[in-house]
Automatic annotation (TrEMBL):
Lineage per the UniProt record: Bacteria, Bacillati, Actinomycetota, Actinomycetes, Kitasatosporales
InterPro entries with a match to the protein in the record: MFS, MFS_dom, MFS_trans_sf, Sugar_transporter_CS
Domain of life of the organism encoding this protein: Bacteria
Topology in membrane: Multi-pass membrane protein
Subcellular location: Cell membrane
Keywords: Membrane, Transmembrane, Transmembrane helix
Signal peptide segment: none
Entry-linked PROSITE patterns: MFS, SUGAR_TRANSPORT_2
Gene3D superfamilies: MFS general substrate transporter like domains
Domain Major facilitator superfamily (MFS) profile: 35-425
Protein name: MFS transporter
Major localisation: membrane
Length: 430
């Protein structure tokens, strides 16, 4: 039986006082667990649709006779437009609700991923990929806010890290489908089929619409019109009280995502073109990296609750930079060493994200949480897109492996940005 002092969650459920690896999941309560399932599925399929491009990049470049710079631009336009999509989705989340905004973002990225498979030329593919970025940019921010508002301060880091781990699941699924599709079909058709399978997220929309609800506090504020003049307003997050937070959070997101997407975009190309691996061998090397990523997300979530948000991000920024340099300096023929290094590389470049959902949610009040989190995370993604583009430009003269060192520079920027932000571990969301 509960007492007046029994901790309760945003949905009214009693907070789980027991320990254990799944205490965070029990503590969410039934409605929170449904929200978690929707956000997890949305982010996993977001990852799947994103990786349809990097995995098919070599075949796409050959089909359209593209330079490395043009190939890199496909990834860059996705990330740049995602900055707009994230900001818009954040405002929508504050104005029409987290769940409705989640449905819009998932449907958008699914639709335009499929459209990419029909592209008759490079220009059309560039446009469709940019439009895919609108939904791609918004999904994480909306899903993370939805779950953060159900989670308790005690478990929020681990809960949001578990949502983040869906990225590794979607990535792994994409590599599996890539290995099958490119193993069975000619490359000129296989890359199109990869994009066609991006229709999978449309199935998730039906579940979210039928089963998921906003956390009661967020829904109540919207229904009552609380702080109507600033709710969902981008200008509100640039007012004096939040300006410093917005600037440094954007810089932090720029560094972390600049490093991550540089590696995500170019490592498949590096393995195929510079190391000379086949599709099946590349899939095996990526599987090791993905295993590390999944473990990294969950471990990072545990550490972000125990060490704090800032210390965890700083730790993995440093380790990620070291792993990038080590991975790209493995001598030719040392395949075993390259395979072994894939696990710590995937672990570190993913663990750094584990605290992001909780950290950004805790930096902003409820009325502008969607706008703040959507804007900072995705502006960081858009500006961070300069890093994979730079690698594409330099790859022809430096080689992909040599140019990938710029990912380490991005992680240094992330570490520096932490100096301008407060520690938020233990913060209760109003």
């Amino acid at each position: 039986m509960s007492t007046p002092h029994t901790p309760r969650l945003p949905g009214g459920e009693i907070q789980d006082q027991d320990g254990g690896a799944l205490a965070w999941l029990r503590a969410l309560g039934p409605r929170g667990r449904r929200a978690f399932a929707g956000a997890f599925g949305g982010y996993g399929l977001d990852s799947y649709d994103f990786y349809a491009l990097p995995l098919g990049a070599t075949a796409i470049a050959a089909y359209f006779n593209l330079s490395s710079g043009q190939t890199g631009m496909l990834a860059t336009v996705t990330l740049v437009v995602s900055a707009v999509g994230g900001a818009v989705a954040g405002v929508l989340a504050d104005r029409i609700g987290r769940v409705r905004a989640l449905v819009v973002t998932v449907a958008t990225y699914a639709l335009f991923t499929v459209a990419c498979g029909f592209a008759p030329d490079y220009g059309t593919l560039l446009v469709f990929r940019g439009l895919q970025g609108l939904g791609f940019g918004g999904e994480w921010a909306v899903g993370a806010i939805l779950v953060a508002e159900y989670a308790s301060a005690r478990h929020r880091g681990r809960t949001l890290a578990a949502v983040q781990s869906a990225w590794a699941v979607g990535w792994g699924l994409a590599v599996l489908v890539y290995t099958l599709v490119f193993g069975l079909l000619d490359d000129d058709l296989a890359w199109r089929v990869m994009f066609f399978t991006g229709a999978l997220p449309a199935l998730l929309v039906f579940y979210v619409r039928r089963s998921v609800q906003d956390a009661p506090e967020a829904a109540r504020r919207r229904a009552e019109g609380a702080e109507k003049t600033v709710t969902g307003s981008i200008t509100a997050i640039f007012r004096p009280a939040l300006l410093r937070t917005t600037l440094f959070a954007s810089l932090l997101a720029t560094g972390v995502q600049g490093g991550y997407y540089t590696l995500a975009t170019w490592i498949p190309n590096y393995l195929e073109d510079e190391r000379g691996y086949t599709v099946v061998t590349t899939g095996g090397f990526l599987a090791t990296q993905i295993s590390g990523a999944f473990a990294g997300y969950l471990t990072g979530g545990l550490l972000t609750d125990r060490l704090g948000r800032k210390r965890t991000i700083a730790l993995f920024a440093a380790l990620s930079a070291v792993c990038v340099v080590a991975y790209t300096r493995v001598p030719s023929g040392a395949d075993g060493l390259l395979l072994a290094l894939g696990f710590p590389l995937g672990f570190c470049m993913s663990a750094i994200f584990s605290g992001f959902g909780s950290f950004l949610a805790e930096l902003y009040p409820t009325a502008v949480r969607g706008a703040g989190q959507g804007f900072t995370y995705n502006v960081g993604r858009g500006v961070g897109a300069c890093f994979p583009a730079l690698v594409g430009v330099l790859a022809d003269s430096w080689g992909v492996g040599g140019a990938l060192v710029f990912a380490a520079l991005a992680y240094a920027i992330a570490a520096a940005a932490l100096t301008g932000l407060p520690e938020t571990r233990g913060t209760e969301l109003p």
